[in-house]
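Help needed: design a sequence for this.
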């Protein structure tokens, strides 16, 4: 059975890149550009892993993590950030995020982190 991966980022190019890479790697991939879409996909598709951008207009990554916790979701989460804000990263980890990586990123490192956290 294919692993399900949700990519949440407001930047279209990043969503497309990650979607294509992980689809080629054999994942069922979904993507969302905002928190409302992300939470709907989490509820409907129950992804095995979420790649979640820290800064998204409207509802940021921390708010999305909090909502996922309220929903009782136990999905693995890896945060993405272009800002490297240590305080936000630490808060994300307290909320259950497993890891993070900085943008711009090396796609091979991202693939390795995803596979590591999904035991693929």
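Sure. Designed sequence:
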């Amino acid at each position: 059975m294919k692993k399900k991966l949700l990519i949440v980022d407001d930047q279209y190019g990043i969503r497309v890149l990650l979607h294509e890479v992980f689809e080629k790697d054999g994942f069922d991939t979904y993507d969302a550009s905002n928190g409302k879409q992300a939470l709907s996909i989490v509820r409907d598709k129950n992804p095995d892993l979420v790649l979640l951008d820290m800064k998204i207009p409207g509802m940021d990554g921390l708010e999305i993590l909090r909502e996922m916790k309220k929903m009782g979701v136990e999905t693995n989460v890896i945060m993405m950030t272009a800002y490297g804000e240590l305080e936000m990263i630490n808060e994300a980890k307290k909320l259950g995020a497993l890891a993070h990586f900085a943008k711009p990123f090396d796609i091979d490192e991202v693939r390795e982190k995803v596979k590591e956290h999904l035991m693929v």
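The beta strands are 4-8, 28-32, 49-53, 76-81, 99-102.
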